[in-house]
């Protein structure tokens, strides 16, 4: 790789993918200027704390749960939706903690997950070819008139919604909402129908006992009452990410202060491309999505570019091969990374390799395929010197009907009942919690 000196805007000289074409650069610059003048979303100390947690996860001392919407929608920046997402992530983390017997680091795909990479620049809606929806930060999901035109003012709207979302998350996680750890606050209806009902009930009652015991020791005020929660999004829309990036004197480095962690998508991870160029200059923990097309030699070079000092906790390889493909691809990737002595964390995203379409053309994913990819990922790592340090899900705390399967029994015919996602299908509340029970067992092995 031909490296140029890194500057905040050196990515601008590299080929770039998945960006909108704005009509007016002046309007775009005006919005970016406003974002630069506003206070950032996160504090550098939090970013470093997360990186430290991630280094621990890489050593097997804790486990990472990353999850949230595929694409956050502006209309979901409201109390109910944020509360539901936080609730399911906290509850899953308690269940995983029970199985793993180690702390869980929680990272939401939230407070900024507004930009989407797409497979095609256009799509056909109601018989008409229109530009594709690229996330609420760029254009509207509505397909009429000019609604799909990229609009720079949406960047500012997204920024304000990210601050409102994060503000509310901070209130909930510091103000006692963490009491939702308590299984008595969980919706466990699906457990009654589960074939593994007894097993789940046993887990729930053990968690209940453990929490009651800790509360009796007086742990409630500090540890149980407030929890750490980090934010993340795909760093796709680089002008926006640049505007969120600052040099922090105290830490002697550049940080993206718009999220604690960011990841690079499978479609924008070209070694010589703009995204890798931007990301190699920032100190946040960075995820890299790794799909079936990833060549281990290229991934090695990318990891070296992103993390030249081989710092622990800095790079997470988020593999997303798809059911039945993990055995073929993951061992080679692990061997290549191990031989190069690169410090990475391994996480599994069992969602993005498992998309399917119903006969009616509705995008869905099957609970069993998702579970199977997680299981295969654990198995492959267990036969290698590496370890699976985390999982990455698209989920929501609401009762949507987007993925099929799970004990709640959502079938193809149920999908239109509450299908809300603008992009990829998410696990709903009970599917997510059930997934956590099943993964908890894998972690306990
Ligand atoms: C995503 O995480 O929403 C996504 C688009 O993933 P990937 O880059 O792995 O396809
Ligand atoms: Mn997605």
Name some characteristics of this structure.
binds phosphoenolpyruvate; 38% helix; Aldolase_TIM; 8-stranded parallel beta barrel; binds manganese (II) ion; globular; cobalt; Phospho-2-dehydro-3-deoxyheptonate aldolase; 13 helices; 3-deoxy-7-phosphoheptulonate synthase activity; DAHP_synth_2; 445 residues; two-stranded antiparallel sheet; alpha/beta; 14% strand
Task: Explain this structure.
The relative contact order is 0.16. The longest helix is centred in the first third of the chain and has 22 residues, at 79-100. The mean pLDDT is 94. The radius of gyration is 21 Å and the shape is globular. It has 13 helices and 14 strands. An eight-stranded parallel beta barrel has the order 1-2-5-8-9-10-11-14, surrounded by four helices. It has helices spanning 25-37, 44-58, 79-100, 153-174, 189-193, 197-216, 220-224, 238-243, 274-279, 296-306, 326-339, 367-382, 429-444; strands spanning 63-68, 104-109, 122-125, 128-131, 230-234, 245-248, 253-256, 261-264, 286-290, 315-319, 345-348, 356-357, 363-364, 388-394. Strand 12 and strand 13 (363-364) form a beta hairpin. By secondary structure, the chain is α/β, with parallel strands linked by helices. Bound molecules: phosphoenolpyruvate (PEP) and manganese (II) ion. Phosphoenolpyruvate binds at residues 70, 117, 234, 265-267, 289, 291, 320, 352.
Please outline what is shown here.
Helix content is 38%, strand content 14%.
